[in-house]
Amino acid sequence: MAAQAGPLVDLSIDNDGIAILTMNRPPVNSLNLELLEEIGKSLDEVAKNKTKSMILTSSSPSVFSAGLDIMEMYKPDLKRAEIFWTTLQDVWIKLFGSSYITAAAINGHAPAGGCLLSMSCEYRVMVEGKYTIGLNETALGIVAPTWFMDTMCHTIPIRQAEYALTTARMFTVDEALQVGLIDESASDKADAIDKCKKFIRKFDKIPSLARAVTKQKIREGPLVRLQKNRQQDTAEFLGFLKNPKIQQSLEMYIQSLKQKAAK
Ligand SMILES: CCCCCCCCCCC/C=C/C(=O)SCCNC(=O)CCNC(=O)[C@H](O)C(C)(C)COP(=O)(O)OP(=O)(O)OC[C@H]1O[C@@H](n2cnc3c(N)ncnc32)[C@H](O)[C@@H]1OP(=O)(O)O
C-alpha cells in the first residue's frame, strides 16, 4: 500500500455550520487503527463544538470505504488487535449514538465496515455508477458482529437484512435504493453532498433537543446491547483471530484482492 500523504481525515465546517468529515486513507479508505482513531477524534470534536450536523464522505474518487483493513486481522499482534476492535466499537457508539444530525455522501464502493459507517448515519445518498454497498462478511467466511447486524436491521426490513447478511449481498445503487439501504442516489459527490444538506435543512424548524432525544431513544436498543456486551464482543473477535481456519480464509481473500488489483 502507498505511503500515506496528508492527514487521514479532514474535518471542515461549511458556511451553513455543517461539519464535513472526509476519510482520506488512499487507496480505498480501509479502516485501520489509525484511521479509526482519527475518525473517533473528529466525531468528538463535532460533538464538543455543538455543530448541528455532520456529513461523512471520502476523498477517493471511487471508494467510500473498503471496510476494515484486513491486515489488522491477518496474523495480528493481539494487543493491537484488541485496541483496534475497541476503537471500532467506540467509533460506532459515537456515530450511531450521536445527538447531532448525520448523513453519508457515499461517493463509491461501501462494503462491510464501509456500509456499517454509512448505515450508522441517519441518511444516505449514494453516487450513481458501478458501485456496490452491503455487508459481505459471510463471503469471507466471517460473521458480522451482532451490532453490525443490528445496524442493518435498523436500516432495512429484517427479512431483507437476514437475506442480505446470509448471502453476503452487495447491492447496486438501484437495488440499495429499492430496499431502502440508501435514501437517494446522486449524479456526483457534489450532488450527494447537496442532497445530504437538503435532508439536514428539514430539521430547521424542529426543536433540536426533541429531535436528538427521539433519535437516541429509537437507537437505544442496539447501543445498550453492545455496551452491555463489549468485553464479550472483543473476546469473540480475538478468539476469531486465533482460529487457524479463519486465518487461512483471510489469507486466501488477501491473495484474491492482490491478484485482482494486479490485473
Ligand atoms: C460467532 C461470532 C464471532 C464473531 C467474531 C467477530 C468477527 C469479525 C468480523 C469482522 C467484520 C469485518 C468487517 C470488514 O469490514 S472486513 C473487510 C471487507 N471488505 C471487503 O471485502 C472489501 C475488499 N475490497 C474490495 O472489494 C475492493 O478493494 C473495492 C471494491 C473496495 C475497491 O476496488 P478497487 O478496484 O478500487 O481497488 P483494489 O481492489 O484494486 O484495491 C486496491 C488496494 O487496496 C487493497 N485493499 C482493498 N480492500 C482492502 C481491505 N478491506 N483491507 C486491506 N486492503 C484492502 C487491495 O488489496 C489493493 O492492495 P494492493 O494495491 O497492495 O494490491
UniProtKB/TrEMBL annotation:
Keywords: Acetylation, Fatty acid metabolism, Isomerase, Lipid metabolism, Mitochondrion, Transit peptide
Gene3D superfamilies: 2-enoyl-CoA Hydratase, Chain A, domain 1 (3.90.226.10), 6.10.250.170
UniProt pathway annotation: Lipid metabolism; fatty acid beta-oxidation
Protein name per Swiss-Prot or TrEMBL: Enoyl-CoA delta isomerase 1, mitochondrial
A Pfam family recorded for this sequence: ECH_1
Provenance organism: Parnassius mnemosyne (clouded apollo)
UniProt xrefs under InterPro entries: ClpP/crotonase-like_dom_sf, Enoyl-CoA_hydra/iso
Subunit and interaction comment: Homotrimer.
Biological-process GO terms, alphabetical: fatty acid beta-oxidation
CDD domains tied to this protein: crotonase-like
GO molecular function, one term: delta(3)-delta(2)-enoyl-CoA isomerase activity
PANTHER family: ENOYL-COA DELTA ISOMERASE 1, MITOCHONDRIAL (PTHR11941:SF45), ENOYL-COA HYDRATASE-RELATED (PTHR11941)
